[in-house]
Every structure is written in structure tokens, then in C-alpha cells.
Amino acid sequence: MKSFIAALALVSAGLIAPTGALAQGGPGRAYSRYYNPQTVETVSGSVLAIERVTGRGRFAGIHLTLKTRTGELSVHLGPSGYLDKQALKIAPHDTIEVTGSRITYRGKVVLVAAQVRRGNETLVLRDAQGYPLWSRPRRR
Fold it and tell me: Exposure check for the chain: N or C terminus, fewer CB within 10 A?
């Protein structure tokens, strides 16, 4: 019970802590509040650039710029520590399909990615409600 209360306190602290880059968000962050299941869409295009973004927190996030048929779109993937451990590695010039929530963050339109597909490979980042997989409690 004490460990549950301690974990709850950490999660609560994370919910009120300010976040830097949107793709950041270690365990307990309020990151999923930006994801809106009502604005989910799928876009495809070519990766123009990939950037590691460090905000005020200790986690670096991965953002990419996707060239779509309608223009460039900033896509926020997730923390670099989580993405570095995944089998699918996205690189500039890759043609990908991204499913995510289109939102306005700090005055800019961005897509918060839930899933990225390249060919027959899929990288799942969030569940249907937008909750980040890197924030799920570890199973023993």
C-alpha cells in the first residue's frame, strides 16, 4: 500500500509539473492531456528532418518534420529514451504514414503521433486514448 501511495504521489506531481517539449514525458507526465481522440487522422509523406528536443524536463523528445501533399507538418513522436529502444528507426527521406491527434500547441499545428508505419513495419506509441506506452506501469 505504501508503494502505491508513493507511486500515486509521483504521478500527481508529474501532472502539475510544467513540461517542456511536447514529445517529452517520462512516467507520470500529463502528456496525454494534449492528445485528443476526436482529432485523430492519418497522414503520409516523406521525412524531411528529425530533431531531438530538450525542454525544461530531463527527457529529450523526438520531433520530425513530415512533407505531406498539403505542406510540412511537425510530428511529435515521444521521448528519445523510449524511441531508441524500438526496432523501427525513422530516418530522413523515409516515406511514412502517421496516425495521431492534430492539435495546436504553443500556437503551432502539430500531430501527436500514436502510430508510425513504414512499409510493413509499425511503431505503436500510444493507445487509443492517447496514453503514451512509455508511461505504462512496468509489469513484474
Answer: C
- Domain extent, residue 57, equals 2-135
C-alpha grid cell for residue 38? 476526436
Q: Does residue 60 contact residue 52 with C-beta atoms inside 8 Å?
A: yes
Residue 63 CB partners (closer than 8 Å, separation 6+)? 21, 22, 23, 50, 51, 53, 74, 75, 76, 77
Q: Is 108 inside a domain boundary?
A: yes
Helices (H), 17-139: 80-83
Can you give the CATH number for the domain in which 96 is found? 2.40.50.1010
Q: How far apart are CA 65 and CA 79, in angstroms?
A: 16
pLDDT in tens, 7-22: 333 333 333 233 334 4
Q: Model confidence over 32-59: pLDDT tens digits?
A: 567 889 999 999 999 999 999 887 666 7
